[in-house]
Amino acid sequence: MKRALNFNAGPAALPEAVLAKAEKEMMNYQGSGMGVMELSHRSKEFEEINERTENLLRGLLTIPDEYEVLFLQGGASLQFSMVPMNLLEKGSTASYVLTGTWSEKALKEAQKMGNAAIAASSKTANYRFIPSTSEIDIPAESSYLHITTNNTIYGTQWHSFPEGLPIPLVADMSSDILSRPLNLSSYGLIYAGAQKNLGPSGVTVVIIHKDLLKRSKPGLPSMLNYEVHAASRSLYNTPPTLSIYFLMLVLEWAEALGGVKQLELLNKQKAALLYDAIDRSDGFYTGHAEEKSRSLMNITFTLDQDDLTSAFLHEAEESGFIGLAGHRSVGGCRASIYNAVPLENVEKLADFMNHFRSRN
Ligand code: PMP
């Protein structure tokens, strides 16, 4: 069977081995006579899936015991609200570094909950770069500082991080979690929707320092309260069982591949192929991100005329490349090359870019 050359931004390509294993277990999970989505979430089988998934994630990202791992629903977008609902203390400010559309949305939700401020922003530069850590100006009495480690739409990524802050660092890692090693000790909370590097959509991973759970007020709706989810080990209500199962398979795949260090090496190799095609094109392709802030996950670029961009996207589609149009809010082109996108597909895209340039 021919698989697509999938460069979607999310939901995105999954490892073929994961899909094959899920297919094999679809009708009969481990001799239970039921598929995973037919199992009770209170069954022994699902409890094991839940526990194994958490343990795999703890191993891969070296998550210490002081942190809880939660599997929630509502996507990263619900975290835009849950973070300030739970962590913004009375009379205090929620501080945000704006590096793109998703951090703007996170800020907007925080503003609905209380005081929120911009600690740094690259908006006036059309989000071409990540502000340096020395530029971040955190207002006094802040409850936390929020960053978006990879900006899916603009194709920028944080490569050095604020360290030793007096307040918790909170990060939206939706589009780069598991793509590189993580030094969790700098963070109070991280969250990520699964549908890029972790699995299909439907589950959102939240990793939270146990100290921060004390900030969740009992008056919060239970489903929006981190403490409630932590106390019930993410089984407060019916969890997205199938998505969690897929997450487990993706984590098993990542572990078998050699873990996040190996994934990072591969991701660097893949990104270099496309950035080389851009940099060696004599201006035929222009990268959106400044070099120092380039993302290894989402490679964004433009061609210098609109009709050439349309021709590029059209020919790419005819050649079997999926998902190369830039986000509707910025246009241009974007190749999303998350963990599961095979190196050979990226090589094919780089070749296509070089050939298209030589023909135009
Ligand atoms: N944050 C980032 C960095 C994203 O890329 C996205 C989705 N593309 C979101 C948040 C929103 O995620 P969701 O659709 O899961 O709410």
From TrEMBL:
Subcellular location: Cytoplasm
GO BP term (any one): L-serine biosynthetic process
Domain Aminotransferase class V: 6-349
Keywords noted in UniProt: Amino-acid biosynthesis, Aminotransferase, Cytoplasm, Pyridoxal phosphate, Serine biosynthesis, Transferase
Modified residues (N6-(pyridoxal phosphate)lysine): 196
Substrates-to-products reaction catalysed: O-phospho-L-serine + 2-oxoglutarate = 3-phosphooxypyruvate + L-glutamate; 4-(phosphooxy)-L-threonine + 2-oxoglutarate = (R)-3-hydroxy-2-oxo-4-phosphooxybutanoate + L-glutamate
Name of a matching Pfam family: Aminotran_5
Keyword Heme in record: no
Molecular-function annotations in GO: O-phospho-L-serine:2-oxoglutarate aminotransferase activity; pyridoxal phosphate binding
Chain positions recorded as pyridoxal 5'-phosphate binding sites: 76-77, 102, 152, 172, 195, 237-238
Cofactor(s) annotated in UniProt: pyridoxal 5'-phosphate
Matching SUPFAM superfamilies: PLP-dependent transferases (SSF53383)
GO cellular component assignments: cytoplasm
Binding site for L-glutamate: 42
Family of this protein: Belongs to the class-V pyridoxal-phosphate-dependent aminotransferase family. SerC subfamily.
Subunit structure of this chain's protein: Homodimer.
Function statement: Catalyzes the reversible conversion of 3-phosphohydroxypyruvate to phosphoserine and of 3-hydroxy-2-oxo-4-phosphonooxybutanoate to phosphohydroxythreonine.
Name the UniProt record assigns to this protein: Phosphoserine aminotransferase
Native organism: Mesobacillus boroniphilus
Gene behind this protein: serC
